[in-house]
Specification:
InterPro entries: Quino_amine_DH_bsu, WD40/YVTN_repeat-like_dom_sf. This is DUF3352 domain-containing protein. It comes from Hymenobacter lapidiphilus. Among the domains are: 33-50 and 101-206, no CATH class; 269-326 and 334-541, no CATH class. Helix content is 20%, strand content 34%. The protein contains 18 helices and 53 strands. Strand 6 and strand 7 form a beta hairpin. The longest helix has 27 residues, at 2-28.
Length: 921
């Protein structure tokens, strides 16, 4: 009886466990977790990233990645990543694990002088969960780490700590929390504990509750999103800057309470765009400026090039800035002063700004200016004179060029006129007038230097760099913060907390990567209505100093143009980029500079070569780089444009390269083979160290080459296939000996390469050529002709070529006879025919992207026209495209059914996006 009871109890327990598991799977686990709900309420910044391989690529292309890896904090992160990869037994394990997950990173102030980071990563499968668990087990077994668990607020936390912490290293590990397959971790245990406390209040609104309906990742090309809590921003700035600067920063930050923006990395800039909720607290900057019109930045004509930081406000009358609690004039100034101040205040309107000037040393206090616009400068001059006489100020003045400067006579006069944001001008501020602007200063040398800059024309409005910067900002705004990071360097060093200066000095390169920074807030037209938001744009930019300028090609934004300063000479070559919808492009200009253009139409790197490119570049396996040739040297670059070891290879003085062929595979223990064809039909074979292969003597053939030599590997044996114009075909081994059956004659002259169908043996490898009698001749590498058939009729003036597609998977045959060019399929069926007016050289290209997605390009080099035909042999666009190089390149995006045509037109590299029907013929 007892055994039966035990069996029934066991069965009951199993059923209960199964029911609990099913309930959890169907009810609890099926309910999605809002990742924002796991972020503690005190977050200052929260960044969400998604496509991490693409994000890393964009960081590298904008050259931010190299600077980030020089930061000590990121170096520590990189060391931990290397440790994770070594424990997981792979490479880029964490980057691949992140993939396209939505990862949240939040910044929190954890102590009066400290801040920390909190990370959140979703676990998407059982395999990934096992990866995390296996990594923790490996860390637990590692002698340098100690892994423990503890319970906090009903959640199980895992602490991973180093047993010995190196001197100067912050922390010694991380704390983890796995909440419903959302992995939350930080090097600061308090932040993970804050998440546990946050989970105890599931009904509390999240930090992003006001942006629940906003998902920027639905848009294309968004690299990240950023949530900024401006109410807590002064708290973070207080960690970094000295306490006397915090009130001024808090006043500026009080325009909005929080905002959510998208982030896009593109070439020479990083752009954040989004929306902000106004700060409704009494006395905030928003409350003071509510209803005031947004304005343009007109004062570029009076902003000096030495400006480091500019806080610009657009409004109507400046009286709005003083708010309801206006500061009264001191009684010691006399009863006549307040009316003069009111009259002077009434003459100022439209825009005001606070400007800090650069200094040569962090020990020197930076000059500070307050600028305000007046429509009646003569009236302001009179009122300022009356004010000086009313307070008994000295009538003397200084002079800088045509400008005069005076003692203002009233302590903190900018604050009296413009509000509490313009404090710190001391008991004896100075004043000058420049055109329609009144300029107040706290230091006479700074004001004199400023006026000297005005007289010399050293202003933003006369600087092409600053004008280009302002043109990329929003034209109308209520608040602008403009920063020149290079001018701001000493200003920052002076303002930072003492313990933060060393960190800034170490990261100088990263800070100055984008010297032009703009933060803008634009009010809504209906801002008086409930729910109205500011449009915000944050721009980090460095001047476009590269060799080209990008712009859209079409009015609808499709396609692109990259306008180079030097004309281009080589045909464009598309380079497939992992994770990108568009390819990169390689192109060379007439100054022999090779450029790599990213999918975002930005020149990522350039390298000057000693001569023109010889033939197309050779892509290395795994997208690891490029091999290319000039007449005198061979080059190998990685994807970042850096030369690889042993390169460039210098060819002998007697060699002038005309073509480069590379062995298709690497045998174990053997390097890659480089076959160089030189002038005079000479062939040379080198390895990647520049050494000639043993047994291979430079070969001089008795006739001109019909096409560049082809390097094949069949059944583990190297085959160098050489076609001569006289119709003879040679096949050499790696030692330079001819294979049995060669040379082989195809019966007539040749003008193009062979189409290769590689087989398991030499006999079963098939090669096809088309001779000038219009015959398609197929033979194997045993020297046997296996098929011969006429493709089309011929004459003494006709010229036949075999044109393989971009994958070397199929081919067409072209026949030129006088001014007429005809394309045939391999069976001799006529595909299309076109007549040309000139006898200029013509090139033919065949692209095959699958059924119904073929394209044919006929380029006439004399007039510079490229005719693009689709799979149904219709001329795309009804007219040719301009192309000043012999060849174009074409790619296809199956997700959008779009062809991307890359071509060169003089100085321009153009990309044209073409929607073409894929209907089968």
């Amino acid at each position: 009886m007892s055994n039966r009871v035990l069996v029934w109890l066991t069965l009951l327990l199993l059923l209960t466990a199964l029911g609990s598991y099913v309930y959890y799977r169907r009810t609890v686990a099926s309910t999605p977790v809002d990742p924002w709900a796991l972020v503690p309420d005190d977050a200052v910044l929260v960044a969400m990233t998604r496509d991490h391989p693409t994000l890393v690529r964009h960081l590298k292309e904008t050259r931010v990645w190299d600077n980030l890896t020089a930061v000590r904090y990121f170096q520590q992160v990189e060391e931990n990543l290397v440790l994770v990869d070594s424990l997981a037994g792979g490479r880029d394990v964490l980057l691949n694990f992140l993939g396209r997950k939505r990862v949240l990173t939040s910044v929190h102030v954890t102590a009066p002088r400290q801040f920390g980071l909190l990370f959140q990563i979703p676990i998407g499968s059982v395999r990934e969960y096992r990866q995390v668990r296996g990594l923790l087990e490996d860390l637990g077994r590692a002698p340098d780490f100690k892994v423990t668990t503890r319970e906090y607020e009903g959640q199980v936390l895992t602490d991973v700590r180093r047993r010995v912490v190196a001197e100067g290293e912050e922390g010694g590990g991380i704390t983890l929390l796995n909440y419903r397959n959302h992995l939350v971790f930080s090097s600061n245990p308090q932040l993970v504990e804050a998440v546990a406390r946050r989970l105890a209040r599931p009904d509390a609104p999240s930090v992003a509750a006001e942006f629940q309906s906003t998902d920027y990742f639905r848009l294309r090309d968004v690299d990240a999103t950023l949530l900024l809590n401006q109410r807590r921003l002064p708290q973070l700035l207080g960690v970094l800057f000295r306490s006397e600067l915090t009130p001024e920063m808090a006043a500026v930050a009080s325009l909005a309470r929080n905002e959510l923006t998208e982030m896009r990395l593109a070439g020479n800039k990083v752009v954040f765009r989004g929306f902000a909720n106004p700060e409704m607290a009494q006395g905030s900057l928003h409350q003071r400026l509510l209803g005031q019109p947004a304005q343009r930045l007109h004062m570029a004509e009076v902003l000096p090039l030495r400006a480091a930081l500019v806080i610009h406000l657009g409004l109507g009358p400046v009286t709005a800035l003083r708010g309801t609690r206006a500061r009264a004039a001191p009684d010691s100034l006399g009863s006549g002063v307040p009316p003069l101040l009111d009259s002077l205040r009434g003459q100022l309107s439209r825009e005001v700004a606070l400007c800090y000037l650069s200094t040569n040393s962090a020990r020197v206090r930076p000059g500070k200016l307050a600028l305000a616009y007046t429509a009646n400068p003569a009236r302001v001059t009179t009122l300022l004179g009356q004010l000086r006489r009313a307070v008994g100020a000295r009538p003397s003045f200084g002079k800088v060029g045509s400008y005069q400067l005076y003692q203002a006579g009233v302590a903190e006069l900018p604050q009296q006129l413009l509000g509490d944001l313009f404090t710190g001008f001391g008991a004896r501020p100075l004043v000058a007038q420049v055109g329609n602007y009144v300029v107040f200063a706290d230091d006479e040398p700074a004001l004199r230097q400023y006026l000297a800059d005005m007289g010399a024309g050293e202003t933003w409005s006369r600087s092409p760099t600053q004008v280009a910067f302002l043109q990329e900002t929003q034209p109308l705004a209520r608040l602008r913060v403009l920063i020149d990071t290079r001018n701001c360097w000493n200003l920052l060093l002076r303002g930072l907390q003492e313990q933060r200066r060393a960190g800034l000095l170490r990261n100088e390169t990263l800070f100055k990567r984008f010297p032009q920074v703009s933060l803008q807030w634009v009010p809504a037209d209906n801002e008086q209505e409930e729910g109205a938001q500011y449009f915000t744009q944050f721009l980090l930019r460095h001047p476009a100093e590269g060799p080209a300028e990008a712009r859209p090609q079409n009015s609808d934004g499709t396609g692109s143009v990259l306008d180079f300063k030097v004309p281009l000479r080589s045909s464009p070559e598309a380079v497939v980029v992992a994770g990108a919808q568009l390819p990169g492009v390689l192109v060379q200009d007439t100054a022999h500079v090779l450029h790599y253009i990213t999918p975002e139409n930005v020149v990522a790197w350039s390298d000057s070569l000693p001569g023109p490119l010889v033939g197309p570049t050779v892509r290395l396996p795994g997208a690891t780089g490029f091999l290319l040739a000039t007449p005198r040297q061979l080059f190998q670059f990685n994807n970042s444009g850096q030369p690889q070891p042993n390169f460039p290879l210098n060819l002998p003085d007697t060699v002038r390269a005309t073509a480069l062929s590379v062995s298709p595979t690497m045998r174990e223990g053997a390097g890659r083979r480089l076959l160089v064809a030189g002038s005079g039909s000479n062939l040379f074979l080198y390895d990647t160290r520049g050494l000639s292969y043993v047994g291979w003597q430079p070969k001089q053939l008795d006739f001109r080459l019909a096409a560049p030599p082809q390097y094949l590997v069949v059944d583990g044996r190297d085959v160098v296939l050489v076609l001569l114009e006289n119709g003879y075909v040679y096949a050499f081994d790696q030692a330079g000996g001819a294979y049995p059956g060669f040379p082989l004659s195809v019966g007539a002259r040749l003008a193009s390469a062979a189409f290769v169908e590689t087989g398991p043996t030499l006999r079963r490898t098939r090669l096809t050529v088309v001779n000038q009698h219009g015959e398609r001749v197929s033979f194997n590498l045993s020297g046997d002709v296996v098929a011969r058939r006429r493709v089309a009729t011929w004459s003494r003036t006709s010229r036949f070529r075999l044109i393989a597609d971009q994958q070397q998977a199929g081919y067409v045959v072209s026949r030129e006879d006088g001014g007429r060019l005809t394309l045939f399929d391999p069976e001799g069926k006529s595909l299309l025919s076109q007549s040309f007016l000139t006898t200029a050289p013509r090139s033919v290209q065949y692209f095959n992207f699958g059924p119904g997605r073929q394209a044919y390009v006929l380029t006439e080099t004399g007039p510079g026209k490229a005719y693009l035909y689709d799979a149904r042999f219709r001329l795309i666009g009804g007219k040719p495209f301009d192309s000043t190089t012999p060849r174009v390149d074409l790619t296809y995006n199956p997700a959008t059914s779009t062809f991307h045509l890359f071509r060169v037109n003089g100085n321009e590299l153009r990309r044209t996006d073409i929607k073409v029907s894929t209907e089968k013929r």
